[in-house]
Amino acid sequence: MTPTGRLLTHLRHVDLAVPDYDKQLDFYAGVWGLTEVAEDSGISFLAAEGSPEQYIVRLRAAGEKRLDLVSYGAAHRADVDTLAERLLAQGVRLISRPERIDTPGGGYGFRFFDVDGRTIEVSADVEARRHRRIEEKEAIPVRLSHVVLNSPDLARTKAWYEQHLGFALSDTLRSPHAGDLIHFLRISSQHHSMALAKGPHTSLHHISFEMRGLDEYLRGSGRLLRAGHRKLWGPGRHLAGDNAFTYFLDPHGNTVEYTTELEELDEDTWHPHVYDFSRPEVTDQWGTANPMNELIAEESFNDVDRGCFVAPPV
C-alpha cells in the first residue's frame, strides 16, 4: 500500500459489450492496431504489443451495447483484500468477493459497482504478458492510456472515486456558463488514468490508447482517416495533461482516442488547475484540430448505458 493509503496502481483494461461483434473485432484487431490473444464463444481479448497487460480491451457479443467493466490493478493480493473489506464497510455494493480470476493471465480480484452503477474490477497477481518495444514509425498502441466516463452528477461521482478508491484531482475544465465539465483524476504520477465528464446520462465517454510518440500518433491517425473511419476531433494537443489527441468512432459509436506524451507530474508539489473550457487554447494548444462544438460533445455523450447496476454475465 502506498504511504497515502492508495491501493490502486494502474488501469488494466476496459471491457465492452457489442451487438455487432464481428465488425467491432475487425476494427480493434485490424485498423486500430490491437492483437487478439484469446477468443472464447463470442468473447475476444485484445492486447497492446507494448504492454505487459494480458489484454487492454475485451469485446463480448451481446444484444445490447454497454460498458461491461473498467479494471484496475493493485500491487498485492493483500491490497485486494484490504480494499474489498474497506468498500464493504463503507457500504459499497460488491458484486463478488476476492477470488481467483478465470481470464487470460489469471490473478486474484473482485468486482463492485461505483456510485453510478458501473462495474469496476480490481485485481493483483495477474501474470505479465510477453511484450516488446514498439519501434520507430510503428503506429500501433503501446498501452492503454486512460478512460473517460460520463456522469450526470459530476461532483458526486468525483467525490466517490476520491473517497473510496484514492483518486486525486489533477485538473478541472470549467465553462463560464455550465460550470465544471471534466475532472481529471490520477492514481499515480500520470496526469490521469480516469476522467469524469459531465453528461446527461451514465455512459462511456472515450477510451484512450497511448502511441509511441508524435510521429506514430500522426501515422496512426492518418491510417484511420485513409481507411474511411469517422474522425470526431483532432489532431490537436490538450492543455490539461498536455497530450496529443485524435478522436474517432468505433463501428458501434464508442469514442476512441489515439494520444501520446500524457504529462507526468510531481504529486508532492502539484496543485490542480481550473481551465476555462471556452478558450480555444485550452482544448487545443496547437490550433490544428477542428473547433470543439456541441455536435462533437453530443457524440461523446454516447448512448445511455443499459448496464448500470447490472453485473456483466462474465
Describe what you observe in this structure.
The protein is an alpha/beta fold. It has two domains: 8-124, 2,3-Dihydroxybiphenyl 1,2-Dioxygenase, domain 1; 143-301, Roll (2,3-Dihydroxybiphenyl 1,2-Dioxygenase, domain 1), CATH 3.10.180.10. Helix content is 19%, strand content 35%. It is built from six helices and 17 strands. The strands form two sheets. A nine-stranded mixed beta sheet has the order 14-15-16-13-9-12-11-10-17. A hairpin with a 7-residue loop joins β6 and β7. The chain is globular, with a radius of gyration of 18 Å. The two termini are 29 Å apart. 46% of the residues are buried. The model has no long low-confidence stretch (mean pLDDT 97).
CATH superfamily of the largest domain: 2,3-Dihydroxybiphenyl 1,2-Dioxygenase, domain 1
How many beta-strand runs? 17
Mean pLDDT: 97
CATH class of the largest domain: Alpha Beta
Radius of gyration: 18 Å
Strand content: 35-45%
CATH topology of the largest domain: 2,3-Dihydroxybiphenyl 1,2-Dioxygenase, domain 1
Q: How do the SSEs run, as a string of H and E? A: EHEEEEHEEEEHEEEEHEEEEHH
The backbone outline, from C-alpha atoms, is globular
Task: Point out poorly predicted stretches.
Answer: none
Summarize the biggest pleated sheet: 9 strands, mixed
Structural class, please?
alpha/beta
Strand order of the largest sheet: 14-15-16-13-9-12-11-10-17
Task: Give a brief description.
The chain has six helices and 17 strands. It has helices at 21-29, 77-89, 154-165, 214-226, 280-283, 294-301; strands at residues 8-18, 35-39, 43-47, 57-61, 66-74, 99-100, 108-113, 119-124, 143-151, 168-175, 179-186, 194-198, 203-210, 231-237, 244-249, 255-260, 273-276.
